[in-house]
User: Fold this.
Amino acid sequence: MSYSHLYQVWAYNFKDEQILVTALTHRSVGGSNNERLEFLGDALLNCIMAKILFEQFPDANEGELTRLRANLVKRDALVKIAHQVDLGKYLLLGSGELKTGGEQRASILSDAVEAVIGAIYLDSDINTCQAIVTKVWDKLLKNLPQQIKDPKTRLQEYLQSQQKSLPNYKVLTIKGTPHAQLFEVKCMIPGLKKPTYGNGETRRRAEQSAAAKALSVLNVK
Assistant:
């Protein structure tokens, strides 16, 4: 079987194709199968998504990050990825699974996606694996709940969508000791009659506060 299309959609060419074959082999075949690679891929996917979300949403708390990660690694998400990369037609299944349409079964597809991630990691390295997962999950990452995005990002995206200039943030005051500071920031947006103001323990948090108030004034949900 040619895996050229699979290589193309994952944007990765395996140096050791046998490890890919193992990743695509369901336990119904017997012998060497993808269960161990699935275990590895599951751990890698959770770690990679945690890192992506940690960097993408610097103001999200642990609970918010956990919920977002769950949405990206749950079975439904993995099945979407499997369909996106036409993984079903490459699966190696036992005769019983073939007769009952195993190539479209959610549990088999999701396990195979995790196994392929594990295989890519073993065939390359963690940085390559992370880059590929980020690319393949691009649509799902872009469709994360809008409300979890921090106010500065939401404000910037809104203004860009309206073809307006980006906001200008200015620190007005810094009060307190070096270890207990309070920042006051002004957010100015062309076209908005009055600036908005925000306070926070860091400059970033103060800017987020001011941006949140600007979103409220603009009536952006």
